[in-house]
Write a structure and sequence with these properties.
InterPro entries: CPW_WPC_dom (IPR006387). It comes from Plasmodium falciparum RAJ116. This is Pb-fam-5 protein. There is one protein chain. This protein is mostly helical. The chain has a domain of about 80 residues. About 55% of the residues lie in helices and about 5% in strands. The protein has a two-stranded antiparallel ribbon. It starts with 10 loop residues before the first helix and ends with a strand.
Length: about 110
Amino acid sequence: MYIAADDIPDDKKKKQEEDDINVANELGVAIKENLESHYEITKEPSALSTDLLNMKIPTTLEKLLMDDIDEIKWISKKPVNDKICMRDYSKQCPSMWEPITETQCSAPK
């Protein structure tokens, strides 16, 4: 097995990840405190309070963003025909298909 220097996480990257986790945790605490104080003042829960109070803030925001970026890169490499539907929905059946009834079509043979 071959291990490159890039495979070994450096301390700086690890520190940055820990800092990101701390920021996410602080953000979660601030949101929770804000929602709780809103309830104490108004005696009515905000629309978001039940959802946000029970939701855990993601600790790996960077990973979530990178996953989205990877998915976008993958989608951008797909041919256009795989991303859009070429069917003309103003017609009952796709081209080369035969209408059987008002709602059914027969595939070409």
